[in-house]
Amino acid sequence: MKKIGALVLLMLVFSSCGAAEIEPETTPAATASPATAMATTSTGTAATTTTATTTTAITTTTRTTASTTSTTTSTTNTTTTTQRPSSNPSGAYAYDYPGIAPAVAAVPGDPYLIYVSRDYALPANYSPALEVCVESYPEKIQMEAAAAKQYKAMYDAALAAGAELVPYSGYRSIARQKSNFDRLIQTNVDRGHSYAEAVNLAAQEILPPGCSEHSAGLAMDITRPGYWDTREDFETTKEFAWLTAHAQEYGFILRYPKDKFARTQITYEPWHWRYVGVGPAKVMKARGQCLEEYLGIA
User: Fold this and answer.
1) Side-chain half-sphere of 185: how many Cα atoms within 13 Å?
2) 94 and 103 in contact (C-beta within 8 Å)?
3) 243, 273 Cβ separation under 8 angstroms
4) What would the pLDDT profile of 91-140 be if each residue is shown by its tens digit?
5) What is the rounded CA–CA span in Å between residue 117 and residue 102?
6) 213: number of Cβ within 10 Å
7) d(CA 159, CA 163)
8) Which of 244, 242, 241, 253 is closest to 283 using CA atoms?
């Protein structure tokens, strides 16, 4: 009896302990910093696949794998699938966006004149050497090394004149650009546009992944103190006035002017300044040309 009593007591003690708590497979993402929030004009993640299936019983299943993103909506009689672009092993993108099929951009003898747009994507192996533009800002925004040095010189000259050219968004990875582009497409779809219309409208504001000057390290979105955003009324600031008068002296041009949409196919962006080198920038400024006109691109 003593043995049986001891055994029962031992079983009671063991059962009261319970199972050990299991650690989650992933930890929650860290809160985004202002530098990350900044890039909603431009953030990114590696290409993933999400498949969502909705039936008439309103059952939803989400699954993540490693390549194509597709959304499947099925009822009793119909199934619609929308394909999205995915990354190739080479690091380039397989473009499934309707109406967008960029050729690979040639890297010219002067690499600062490389032309990327919705029609020309960076080579898959393009990898700029990066430097921080202005160390005093905690976000540590980067550009291609030579462009970063020229930006710092321009920043110092403007600051001496009473204008603070806050570096807002410089280099962006292709994955980050893809995230921004896909997000804007979804916003346009939510506004009632077809997927093809949504892609076309998005490409007038944010270039597709691989097609952005930000991914080449040659573009900077510039703002001013108190503006942690890109806004068209930046054109009314003393910072914009200073840039309009002096940016070419440091190799920068206003990339998407108000009166050049027919050539650039990008809406007016007073905040977006592109590094092309001092010589070309001065010529474009003197002639009133955008980059397409200077390079003779139709």
Assistant:
1) 22
2) no
3) yes
4) 344 567 999 999 999 999 999 999 999 999 999 889 999 999 999 999 99
5) 8
6) 24
7) 5
8) 253
Assign 181 to helix, strand or coil.
helix
Per-residue model confidence as pLDDT tens digits over 75-85: 333 322 223 33
Q: Are 217 and 146 in contact (CB under 8 A)?
A: no
pTM over 0.90: no
In three-state secondary structure terms, 298 is coil
Structure tokens at 133: 């533009």
Tens digits of residue pLDDT in 111-121: 999 999 999 99
Structure tokens at 34: 């202002």
In angstroms, rounded to a whole number, what is the distance separating the alpha carbons of residues 22 and 109?
57
Strands of the 219-223 sheet, one edge to the other: 166-169, 219-223, 272-275, 252-254
CB-based burial label for 234 (10 Å; 0-12, 13-18, 19+): buried
Told to judge if 269 belongs to the known catalytic residues of this protein, a careful annotator would answer yes
Amino acid (one-letter) located at 85:
P
Length of the chain: 298
Query: Residue 104 has which token pair?
Result: 């690979």
Q: What are phi and psi of 230, to 5 degrees?
A: -105, 125
Q: 3-class SS at 158? A: helix
Secondary structure of 123-157 in HEC code, one letter for each residue: CCCCCCCEEECCCCCCCCCEEEHHHHHHHHHHHHH
**DSSP bridge pairs for 93:** 87
Task: Give the pair of three-digit tokens for residue 246.
Answer: 């002096």
What's the rounded Cα separation, in Å, for the pair 112 and 74?
Answer: 49
39 secondary structure, DSSP code? G
Residue 241: predicted pLDDT: 98
How far apart (Å, rounded) are the C-alpha atoms in residues 54 and 99? 28
Contact at 8 Å (CB) between 214 and 177? yes
Q: Could you tell me if residue 140 is left (phi over 0), alpha (psi between -120 and 50 degrees) or otherwise beta?
A: left
Calpha distance 264→64 (Å, rounded)? 37
**Active-site residue (options: 144, 213, 239, 269):** 269
